[in-house]
Design a protein that fits this description.
This is Nucleoid occlusion factor SlmA. The chain is mainly α and 190 residues long. It is 73% helix and 0% strand. It has a single domain, classed as Tetracycline Repressor, domain 2, CATH 1.10.357.10. Helix 5 crosses helix 6 and helix 7 packs across helix 8. The chain is elongated, with a radius of gyration of 18 Å. The protein starts with 5 loop residues before the first helix and ends with a helix.
Length: 190
């Protein structure tokens, strides 16, 4: 039987970690529990990741690449600023619905008690999302929507809405779809 290539083993570890984060109870994940789930030793985990924090960083890297890859596509393809805002928010909520374990990382719940720099990275991710929303709203003002003075406040409210939906989804044990009624909510917010 051939051994698993290192990159594939790293991916298996991250997938298992994300699956463990999908558990509604949201208990703290230990490397021992992760190793048991994967059916190999903790030492094997540490051959691929120097620490549990590095495992979470791998999940954050995935989130950043996924989310900002799509945001960039939206901004390139959508000519309308309002459509960009709508599509970005919809995508963020759909990403959460499709990736419950990642939602606990996005809200910071999974990072409580972990290395502080992980929460700082999530804060930076939120700031980057807010920046993308500000850019889209700035474009919307050139189309006659809203006022230049409102852009920062609107972007902050929209981000707070998204984060609130993520939290509600996680706190419901992943039962309340965060993307439910998104179009109506966005229309009310805009």
């Amino acid at each position: 039987m051939a051994s698993t290539p290192p990159g594939q083993r790293r991916q298996q570890i991250l997938v298992a970690l994300a699956e463990m984060l999908e558990q509604p109870k949201g208990e703290k994940i230990t490397t021992a529990a992760l190793a048991r789930k994967l059916e190999f030793s903790e030492a094997a985990l540490y051959r691929h990741f120097a620490s549990k924090a590095q495992m979470f960083e791998g999940l954050i890297d995935f989130i950043e690449a996924s989310v900002f890859g799509v945001i960039n596509q939206i901004m390139e393809k959508q000519a309308s600023g309002v459509a960009q805002v709508r599509d970005i928010i919809s995508m963020l909520l759909q990403f959460s619905a499709s990736n419950p374990g990642m939602t606990r990382v996005l809200t910071g719940d999974a990072l409580v008690g972990e290395d502080e720099r992980l929460q700082q990275r999530m804060n930076q991710l939120h700031e980057r999302i807010e920046l993308a929303l500000r850019q889209a709203l700035r474009l919307a003002t050139t189309e006659g929507y809203g006022h230049e003075d409102d852009i920062s406040a609107r972007a902050a409210v929209l981000l707070a809405y998204v984060i609130g939906r993520w939290h509600r989804y996680a706190k419901s044990g992943f039962k309340l779809d965060p993307s439910h009624d998104t179009a109506l909510h966005i229309a009310l917010l805009l």
